[in-house]
C-alpha cells in the first residue's frame, strides 16, 4: 500500500498545542485520506475523516510540504494518447479541456501530485498500456 503521513501543529479547544495527523493512501485501487486530531494535555482524540476520495487542499499541502511532489511522465512516445485521456478523465474531477492539458503535461514536464495520487495514476495508466514512470 502506498501512503504518506504528515503532522500539522494545531490548537486544541483546551488551549494547548495539539497535533493533526493527515494521511493519504491507496486502498483496493481507490485513493483514500484520513485525519486524526490528538491533544496530549487533555486527552482529546478525534478521527476527523476517514474515507475514499480526493484529499482537501490543506491535507495535500501538508503532504507535499512534508514529502515533496511526485511527478509522472511518459517514458516513451505513444502512438495514441486516447487511453491516457480516458484514465485522466476517470480519475480527475476536471473538464475535458483540463484533461487535455494534463495529457500534454504528461508528455512533457509531467503531472505533479502527492505520491499516492501519482501512484494511482501510474497504475491505471499502465493497465491501459500507457508507459509512464514516477520521478521523485
Reconstruct the topology from this structure.
Elements: E1 3-11, E2 17-27, E3 30-38, E4 45-52, H1 57-67, E5 70-74, H2 82-91, H3 96-107, E6 111-113, H4 115-127, E7 132-135
Antiparallel strand pairs: 1-2, 2-3, 3-4, 5-6, 5-7
Helix pairs in contact: 2-3
Note the main attributes of this structure.
about 140 residues; alpha+beta; Ribosomal Protein L30, Chain: A; 2 domains; 4-stranded antiparallel sheet; 3-stranded antiparallel sheet; 4 helices; elongated
Question: What do you see in this structure?
Answer:
The protein has 136 residues and is α+β, with helices and mostly antiparallel strands. The protein folds into two domains: 65 residues; 66 residues, Ribosomal Protein L30, Chain: A (2-Layer Sandwich). Helix content is 34%, strand content 36%. A four-stranded antiparallel sheet has the order 1-2-3-4. A three-stranded antiparallel sheet has the order 6-5-7.
Amino acid at each position: 500500500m502506498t501512503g504518506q503521513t504528515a503532522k500539522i501543529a494545531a490548537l486544541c479547544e483546551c488551549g494547548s498545542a495539539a497535533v493533526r495527523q493527515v494521511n493519504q493512501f491507496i486502498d483496493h485501487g481507490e485513493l483514500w485520506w484520513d485525519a486524526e486530531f490528538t491533544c496530549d494535555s487533555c486527552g482529546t482524540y478525534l478521527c476527523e475523516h476517514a474515507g475514499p476520495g480526493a484529499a482537501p487542499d490543506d491535507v495535500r499541502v501538508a503532504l507535499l510540504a512534508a514529502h515533496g511532489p511526485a511527478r509522472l511522465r511518459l517514458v516513451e512516445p505513444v502512438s495514441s494518447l486516447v487511453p491516457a485521456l480516458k484514465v485522466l478523465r476517470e480519475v480527475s474531477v476536471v473538464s475535458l479541456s483540463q484533461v487535455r492539458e494534463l495529457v500534454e503535461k504528461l508528455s512533457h514536464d509531467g503531472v505533479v501530485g502527492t505520491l499516492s495520487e501519482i501512484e494511482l495514476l501510474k497504475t491505471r495508466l499502465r493497465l491501459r498500456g500507457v508507459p509512464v514512470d514516477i520521478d521523485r
